[in-house]
Amino acid sequence: MPIPKILVIEDEELVRKVVEFRLKKEGYDVYQAKDGGEALELIEQHQFDVILVDIMIPYVGGLEITQKVKSNPKTASTQIIVVSANGLENVILEAFALGADDFIAKPFNLPELMMRVKKHIKQPVG
Amino acid sequence: METFSFSATFILGFLDELPPRVYLASWILLICLALFCLLGIFLISKRMISNYMQRRDRYWNAQIVEIMTQFMVRMDNADPADSLRKTVHEFEQLPFKKAYIRQLLYKQVINYHRNFTGNSADKLRDLFRKLKLDSLTEQKLKSWDSSTKIAGILEAAEMQLENLSPVIERLIHSKSSEIRIEAQTTYIYLNKHHSFHFLKELNEPILEWHQLILLNLITHIKLKELPLFSTWLNSSNSSVVELCLKLVLHFQQFEAQDKLIQLLEHPDVKIQSLSIKILGEFEAVKAEESLVERYALVDDKLKVEIIHALGRIASGKQLNFLLEAVKSPVFEIAFEATQALQNHGEPGISELRKAYLLAPTITKEMIEQVLA
Hints:
With 126 residues, chain A is of the alpha/beta class. Chain A contains 5 helices and 5 strands, in the order βαβαβαβαβα.
């Protein structure tokens, strides 16, 4: 059974590395991008099961990435978890309207984030 | 040096031979040229320093992030105390005493703390304290600049630095309302014991919106022991009394009834109004007579509130008083009194029916409306 692939898009280096470490520890194949440009390149090259994306990232924003992934038939099945420090209702609604599958507000609890990722992985980790 | 001195003598000798106007213009030109050169040197050096500082910060930030990542990662595997000790040791290997490195570290720990809750946030707070970064927060609290002070207060709250409570306590009475508000909020948040004793000495007003913030905070944090807010109801600061009244109501502190009755005579109408409202909410039978006594001395708005409170208390002892109020030429008073009698149940309704027979048309219509 293939190992689920996860992309972490986050500009805060420590947050990105810590999340990456925790996901790897759970047995996932983890990729990381520090901005929207890097993320889009990776999305073109790989088929991810879950994308964790922060809304406020440089170059291409998290919401735009969500829209691009969900509007492309090849990547539409990828589960997107939007992360944001801005928990305003309109931001959350916009994320879901663009196709996001889940939303988690910053500051977040790492175990909770792990559980949400697990929930969105279609196949169990082998 | 000799060449320079020769050139200067030559230029000055040359200038001396020029006609006065040209001489003056030449001097102005020379001064402008010199200033232009100085400005150029200043800008270039400023740019160079800023580039150097950026490069330096980038380098040290990378080191800091690396150690912090290791710390966060180790946290899962190793013994937490051991992991903390190792991390502190690693940071001490850096030129940690240098102010700019401590500043960078301070910013990074706070910034990352903002991203996590739960265990990760707890560990970052432990690291912050172990590295004695709270001394930088203390410096901010003692700064002359009010925005730095406010930032320090907020950071002390964020990192839960209970040890800085005495410093924050001094800011509670600040002349600046912004500092005062943040200090009061943080002080209550950090002190789970005796968090409110500052109310006794508070002379500055607690603004309306700040009262809302404090109410929200006090009603949501887990206090070790809830004080009796009636303790501060005799404060000379009306805003303190107002806030405490709201808290007495929220926490249903019935012990405050006697003080609430005294406040019916408070010079501030807003306090009188709140006290009447709370006595009504508490269904304070012992307040009925005081409320009736105050009735003749207050304006129509408070009269309506007194009648409303009597309607809530509904002991049945004030039926005659309420029947009189039904006859009031002020519609709001008469209507409220009719409702208050209805609230008394059968005795009040029976009195209303009797009054109906003798009442003028307008009162009859009102009673019909209420009893319908």
